[in-house]
Write a structure and sequence with these properties.
The complex is a heterodimer of chains A (280) and B (412). Chain A has 280 residues and is an all-alpha fold. Chain B is an alpha+beta fold and 412 residues long. The chains are: A mainly alpha (280), B alpha+beta (412). Chain A: Keywords: Cell membrane, Membrane, Transmembrane, Transmembrane helix, Transport.
Chain lengths: 280, 412
């Protein structure tokens, strides 16, 4: 690619700033709201008139504590477990799809695609009934299973594309060098696919972490309710008061793990996403 | 150290395509065997069948007398160098070379692995690159790492799948020499697939020429060159390739598009009562008549022709003489062209003449042709009518002797 001229650089910078403002402004607005006192919220001013940590205190130690803390624990636990399961299963499935020729391979791929485009809302009612009958309602497992149905298809698709890029000959070379199929997989294929696995894991984690519909329909108590659903149950100090401040604070808190994750694995994600573009 | 025997090997793919149609070949212990042929002739498939990456549809493959058809590649103790090197990008050069040894760690201790890796890397001048990753190496260095990984294991045989085709011409020449010397020093059986006939001629003790999944001829490079069994082998081996001219017996001469040529009796006898034959003449059998030494002049015949174009290459010149194609042999020539991966056989005679010759394109000149080594081929099946099997066998026996003396020289 040719080096950009000064004007092109300027144009790109302007576009980038506009997009950044557009995406980050709401988050920034939530951030400022989370530091406002309840009386300050309806004033229509952007900055809080007095900065207060009151809302954070409410969700971590005050009235919303019993709602928020278990939900945070549930969200972290459920998202992590479904991510791990999705990535492990998808790694094997994607390897099989990329490397082996078996009956029904197209069927598996098409089913995965069909499942991922199926509207979630149409599944919740049958799941709700089924889960209640077999005792999975309001449990971690009861959420992990539907989350897998969301994360597995995309994980399989991204990983299969990834495995397909790894030259066949590497595996053949490993076999000739004396490796068993399993050794070739663990010593050659998996290390090479690591960036892809990281990317997939983070995408899967986002999906589980952000889910609201399953979270609110398949849970009823703090035993399994994840944060996005719990936010809907926040109440103000009185019935005339909206819990806007507390919700804002909680929203900021749940954003933090995502930011940390992305910062930690930034390099892997970037190399994972550009792998196809830059051969070698 | 291994003797590899292929007995009527067949490979039919699931879609019904038969890539290898019953090939039998004996590869002697310590021999350098080349599989050569145009693309799609099944040479790479055959190599993959030997190493175990392709299933064998029928026939027997034995290594040192043991049938290995069903043995997975990891247990065949063969090592292979891939066309794209297939280096592990996440491992350093050292770890790439050590990879085959680490897989059975229980058998080889750490010091032994280290010793062997360093020995192999010294042999291939890789010592200062051991800590680098394959991505940071040049093509030639990657090629050497792939070789290192192959030799470190002390495998029974080396299999090469067009290992030099990704290198530039100069490096290819260097690596060719290095591979030849390495194989002589290690005395390991080698099977080498290539479509480059220079590699085939220079590296091979014997060369197996394949066409569309069938074996055409297995012989020393010299026998292939001087005593080919048919048109295909004659046309494939040699660069520039052999000229094929439609010819007709006329008394004691052959009538060809470039003139009436006096040929030795054995050529006429071989042509027998056939109406038409194809005369095969290598470019270097020709010479500018002014440059012919008197001591050899009697062995040939002269003719006049006007070259279309000449090319001066320093050590020699090529002259191109066009002729009218003969419709009676057109079909055979078209078929041969297809087999050789070409569009069509040009109706041009390529002639090698002395670099001092003043012959130029468009100017008529007098050429001399050494007829001692010309061949005539049957127009129906392309078989070589003048082939002297005995002389051929002698050439191959000679090559075998040379190989042994080279091996003993290399191991002083």
């Amino acid at each position: 690619m040719n080096a950009l001229t000064g004007r092109q650089k300027l144009a790109w910078a302007v576009v980038a700033i506009v997009i950044l403002l557009y995406t980050l402004w709401p988050i920034f607005s939530i951030l400022t709201t989370s530091f406002k006192a309840p009386s300050d919220i309806g004033t229509g001013k952007f900055w809080p008139s007095t900065w207060t940590g009151e809302n954070y205190q409410t969700i971590f130690a005050g009235s919303a504590k019993d709602l928020f803390l278990p939900a945070l624990r549930n969200s972290i636990g459920i998202s992590l477990i479904s991510t791990v399961i999705a990535v492990v299963l998808a790694t094997f499935a994607a390897y099989a799809i990329a490397r082996l020729d078996f009956l029904g391979k197209r069927l598996v791929l098409n089913t995965a695609l069909a499942v991922s485009i199926f509207p979630i809302i149409s599944l919740t009612t049958p799941l709700f009934n089924l889960w209640r009958q077999i005792g999975l309602y309001d449990t971690w497992v009861g959420l992990i299973i539907p989350y897998l149905s969301l994360t597995l298809p995309i994980a399989i698709y991204t990983l299969a594309a990834y495995f397909q890029q790894i030259p066949w000959d590497l595996e053949r070379a490993a076999q000739v060098d004396g490796a068993t199929t399993w050794q070739a997989f663990t010593k050659v294929i998996v290390p090479l696919a690591a960036p892809g696995v990281f990317t997939t894991a983070i995408i899967a984690f986002f999906i589980a972490w952000n889910d609201f519909v399953y979270g609110i329909s398949l849970t009823s108590t703090s035993v399994a309710r994840p944060v996005p659903a719990a936010l809907a149950f926040f109440t103000g100090a009185s019935q005339f008061e909206d819990p806007t401040g507390a919700i804002s604070a909680a929203a900021i808190v749940v954003t933090i793990p995502i930011i940390i994750l992305v910062l930690l694995f930034q390099r892997q994600i970037v190399s994972g996403l550009t792998q196809g573009a830059v051969k070698g | 150290m291994a003797q590899i025997t292929l007995n009527n090997l067949v490979k039919t793919y699931d879609d019904g395509f038969t890539a290898v149609k019953g090939i039998s070949l004996d590869i002697a212990d310590g021999e350098f065997m080349i599989l050569v042929g145009p693309s799609g002739c099944g040479k790479s498939t055959l190599l993959r069948m030997i190493v175990g990456l392709e299933d064998i549809t029928s026939g027997d493959l034995t290594i040192d007398g043991k049938r290995v058809n069903e043995i997975p590649p990891r247990d065949r103790n063969l090592s292979m160098v891939f066309q794209n090197y297939a280096l592990y990008p996440h491992l350093t050069v050292y770890e790439n070379i050590a990879f085959p040894l680490r897989l059975n760690r229980s058998k080889i201790d750490k010091e032994e692995i280290d010793r062997r890796v360093r020995e192999a890397s010294d042999m291939l001048d890789l010592r200062e690159h051991l800590d680098r990753k394959p991505a940071n190496l040049s093509g030639g260095q990657r090629q050497r790492v792939a070789m290192g990984r192959a030799i470190v294991r002390q495998a029974d045989a080396f299999l090469f799948d067009e290992p030099l085709s990704n290198l530039d011409a100069k490096l290819r020449g260097q690596m060719r020499t290095q591979i030849a010397q390495l194989q002589r020093r290690l005395r390991t059986t080698a099977v080498y697939v290539t479509h480059d006939q220079t590699e085939a001629m220079t590296l091979g003790d014997r060369v197996a020429v394949l066409k569309k999944g069938t074996l055409q001829q297995v012989a020393s490079p010299r026998e292939l060159y001087e005593q080919p069994v048919n048109l295909f082998v004659a046309g494939f081996i040699g660069s520039p390739s052999m000229n094929f001219l439609p010819a007709k017996v006329q008394g004691d001469k052959l009538a060809t598009p470039i003139g009436l040529l006096a040929v030795p009796d054995k050529v006429l006898k071989a042509a027998g009562s056939r109406d038409h034959v194809i005369l095969g003449v290598r470019p270097e059998f020709f010479e500018d008549d002014d440059f012919v030494d008197d001591s050899v002049r009697a062995h040939g015949t002269t003719f006049e022709a006007t070259p279309r174009h000449t090319e001066w290459l320093g050590n020699e010149q090529y002259a191109y003489i066009d002729y009218e194609p003969d419709p009676s042999t057109k079909q055979l020539m078209d078929e041969l062209a297809r087999d050789l991966d070409q569009d069509e056989m040009p109706s041009t005679v390529v002639v090698t003449i002395d670099s001092g010759s003043r012959m130029r394109g468009g100017k008529p000149g007098k050429f001399w042709l050494d007829t001692r080594l010309v061949h005539v081929f049957d127009t129906a099946d392309g078989s070589n009518l003048t082939r002297d099997a005995e002389a051929g066998a002698e050439l191959t026996a000679l090559a075998e002797e040379e190989r042994e003396s080279e091996i003993s020289a290399a191991n002083g």
